[in-house]
Amino acid sequence: MDRKAEGEHRAGEDKASADDLLDIVDVVMEMGQAPADPPSPRPQAAYRSQPPSGSEPTFGLPAHLEQLADHARKYVEAASSANTRRAYASDWKHFCAWARRQNLEVFPPEPQTVGLYITACASGKATGDKTPRSVSTIERRLSALSWNYGQRGQPLDRKDRHIATVLAGIRNSHASPPRQKEAILPEDLIAMLETLDRGTLRGLRDRAMLLLGFAGALRRSEIVGLDVARDQTEDGRGWIEILDKGVLVTLRGKTGWREVEIGHGSSDAICPVVAVQTWLKLARIGHGPLFRRVTGQGKAVGAERLNDQEVAHLVKRAALAAGVGGDLSEGERGTKFSDHSLRAGLASSAEVDERYVQKQPGHTSR
After folding, report:
1. Torsion of CA 35, 41, 42, 44, to 10 degrees
2. Which residues contact 53 (CB under 8 A, 6 or more apart)?
3. Could you tell me the sign of the dihedral formed by the alpha carbons of 99, 108, 111, 135, in that order?
C-alpha cells in the first residue's frame, strides 16, 4: 500500500471513529427527551443526522456499546427524581403548545420568546391557564425549559435581560409572602399519636411514619422512599438499619447522600425504633419498601410503596383529630399543617441543639 492509499485508509478509519462518537452523543442527548417530545433540530456541523421521533433512537450503535448506552440512560434518569422529570415534561409540552398558538418557533431557544411566555403565564393568558400562575410555578416552568433545552444541546440563557428583567418584575408584582407551616411540637405529636388505632395495621404504620418523620426531620418523599435494607428496590431513596442504639437512616437527597441517627424514645409508646420494629413484624415486611398501602379492609399489606401525598394527608388528619392548633379555624388548620410541620417541629424544639438541627434535616446555614 503506497503512502497516498495508506493516508486515505487512515482517514477513512478516523472518519468512521468520529461517526461512531457522533452516534453515541446523539444517543445520550436523546435519552433526556420524553417519548412525546418533538424531534430536536440539530446543527448540521455538530450532528450527522436527525433521529426519528420516538423513545428509542435508532443509530445502529455498535453491539459492544449498546450495554454502555443503556447504563448511560439509567444515569440520566438518576440525575433527577421521577416527579421532577414528569413536571419538566409537562411544562415543556405546555410551552410548546403556547408557542404553536402564537406561531413562534421553539428552536433555537430565543430569550424574547421565553420572556413573552412567562409574561403570559403571569397574566393568565398562557395555553390552558385560566388564572395567573404563581411565581413559584413560573420559576419551575422556567427551570423546565432550561433543562429541556440543555438536554437538546441548545442551552437557554436565563441571564438574558428579556428573561431576567421580566422575571424580576413578575416577582416584585406578584410574589406573596410564604405561608408558614405550623410546627408540630412534642406534646402535639403525642396527642396526634393517641388518635391512631394501635390495633390496626394502618394505625401501626401511621405511628411509625409520624415518629420516624419527626425524630429524623424527614421530608415526606424521604419517609416513603425508604427501604427495609440497602439497595432493595430501584425506586428507593434510602434505607434503614436497626442498631442497638437506635435507627440509622441513610438518605439520598438533592445534594447527595446523608445519614440521620435516630435514638430510642423515653418510653415505648413514643419510641420511633419500637414503632418501626412493631410495624415490620406485624406487617410481615422483610424486603422492599418500608411503608406500604394497607389493603383488604386494613387486614393486608400491599407490595407497592406508599405515595408521598399520604404523609401530608396523615399529618393534617391527625392534627385535626387531636385538636392541634385549637386557636385556629378548621380551614386554617387544614392549610397550616403538613408534612413539613414534622421538620419544623424538630427545629423548633428547645431541647435540640441548633447545630444538630441543621445537620439532622439536611438544612444549610444561611
Report:
1. 140
2. 37, 38, 39
3. positive
SS3 of residue 72 by DSSP: helix
Query: 21 pLDDT exceeds 60?
Result: no
Helix (H) or strand (E) holding 118: helix 111-123
Residue 358's pLDDT is: 36
Are the C-beta atoms of 129 and 138 separated by less than 8 Å? no
DSSP string, 134-187: PHHHHHHHHHHHHHHHHHTT----TTSHHHHHHHHHHHHHH-----PPPPPPHH
Whole-number Å distance between alpha carbons of 134 and 113 = 20
Residue with cell 411540637: 185
Residues 80 and 237: their CA atoms lie apart, in Å, by 12
**Neighbouring residues of 11: CB distance < 8 A, sequence distance ≥ 6:** none
Return the beta strands (E) in the chain as ranges. 226-227, 238-243, 246-253, 256-263, 292-295, 300-305
Name the fold adopted by 186-359. hpI Integrase; Chain A (1.10.443)
CATH H-level, domain 82-174: superfamily: Tyrosine recombinase, N-terminal domain (1.10.150.130)
Read off the pLDDT of residues 206-232 as tens digits, 9 standing for 90 and up. Answer: 999 999 998 998 988 999 999 999 989
Question: Can you tell me the distance from the alpha carbon of 118 to that of 142, in angstroms, rounded to the nearest whole number?
Answer: 8
* C-alpha separations of 206 from 87, 96, 307, 347 in Å: 28, 42, 13, 22
Domain map of the chain by residue range? 19-78, 82-174, 186-359
